[in-house]
Amino acid sequence: MLKDLLESKRCFKLVCGAGNEDVLQVENLTALYAKAGCRFFDVNASSEVVEAAKRGLKFAEVDDACICVSVGIKGDPHVCKAQIDYDKCIGCGQCDEICPQRAIVYHKVKKAKCIGCGRCLKVCPKGAISYISEPKELSEVLPPLVKSGIDCIELHAMGENSCEIEKNWDYIKENFDGIISICTSRGKLSDKALIERIKTMTENLAPYRVIVQADGFPMSGGEDDYKTTLQAVATAEIVQNENLPVYIMLSGGTNSKTAELARMCGINYHGIAVGSYARKIVRKYIESKDFLTNKDKFNEALKIAESLVKSVEIP
Questions:
Q1: Which residue spans within the chain are E strands per DSSP?
Q2: How far apart are alpha carbons 89 and 130 in whole angstroms?
Q3: Over the stretch 35-92, which tens digit does the pLDDT of each residue have?
Q4: Is the whole-model pTM more than 0.70?
Q5: Residue 247 pairs with which residues in a beta bridge?
Q6: How many CA atoms lie within 13 A of 141 on its CB side?
Q7: Are residues 88 and 232 in the same domain?
Q8: Do 96 and 214 fall into the same domain?
């Protein structure tokens, strides 16, 4: 089913966030975007979050969707959580205002909502914010998820710790026989190193068993313009030029302009993963406790979500 979706080359993947453990938000997002036509969902690797996504699919009456769980290694931003040093904090509120997840309220971090985007750290005038890495032990979290019937596992393979990436990738390959995904970017790698990593990780695997999620600028999709999505397209081009037998998924700064720019640049992609922007445009709706029971509110959000999903399908 996932292969068919990717082969259509019109696959829209909703990224709820690898670090997003807010089960209500995940349920609401999944219900909304499933109803809007999305059939591929990327969620935190926990049984509670996966079950929340399944509840969302049930609400939308969708039974042909695919669920991917994302995991990362120590130090990867997707599995980091913000923490505040109250000896330095002056209560200015800048972190509260800039957090796209509303994970900081009155200078207190709601860890379940934090996705490790780093926006709060950048605006703090006193350096009171830092991040703590909280990677999951794969041998503990993946077996029950695999047993429950997930469709894909994604490893965030960023940074320079190749040994840790290799260890986790080997575990995934040995314990899951479905499609597996590599999410990687050029943040700390040269173009050459990026390709070498992908080639090493896909060596001896069956053709088109792997999705390469070309993460242009991780967790940067706040705006809806060409510049924001440029790096996603550029990173995908580097992967495409190698003619590897992999599926190419654009991510990192993706928005409603991504498909248009990618096709203008001749990128033969299989799908587009949208996270920050997809969550932002419906945030005021999905945060409501009555979201799934208020038809007017849901339908208003649905029009917005449908427009974004359809943007991936432009001719």
A1: 11-15, 40-44, 66-72, 80-84, 104-105, 108-109, 129-133, 152-156, 179-184, 210-215, 247-251, 271-274
A2: 12
A3: 999 999 999 999 999 999 999 999 999 999 999 999 988 878 888 899 999 999 999 9
A4: yes
A5: 211
A6: 18
A7: no
A8: no
Selection from 206, 262, 272, 212 nearest residue 242 by Cα: 212
Looking from the CA of 31 toward its CB, the CA atoms found within 13 Å total 22
Name the pairing type of β-strands 129-133 and 80-84. antiparallel
Q: For the domain that residue 61 is a member of, what is the CATH number?
A: 3.20.20.70
Q: What is the dihedral angle through the alpha carbons of 36, 38, 39, 43, rounded to the nearest 10 degrees? A: -120
Residue 271: closest CA among 246, 244, 305 = 246
Instruction: Report the C-alpha gap between 219 and 252 in whole angstroms.
Output: 6
Q: Is 9 helix (H, G, I), strand (E, B) or coil?
A: coil
Q: Which residues contact 292 (CB under 8 A, 6 or more apart)?
A: 27, 28, 31, 59, 298
CA-closest candidate to residue 246, choices 211, 274, 198, 206: 211
Tell whether 207 and 271 lie within a shared domain: yes
Nearest partner of 278 among 303, 257, 296, 256, judged by Cα? 256
Q: Are residues 69 and 88 in the same domain?
A: no
Residues 49 and 153 in one domain: yes
Domain total for the chain?
A: 2
- What are 264-275's pLDDT values in tens digits? 999 999 999 999
* Of residues 43, 63, 39, 61, the one with CA closest to residue 51: 43
Residue range 187-211, pLDDT digits in tens: 888 999 999 999 999 999 999 999 9
The domain in which residue 121 lies consists of 78-133
By DSSP bridging, strand 40-44 and strand 179-184 are unpaired
Q: Pick the last residue of a domain from 99, 118, 133.
A: 133
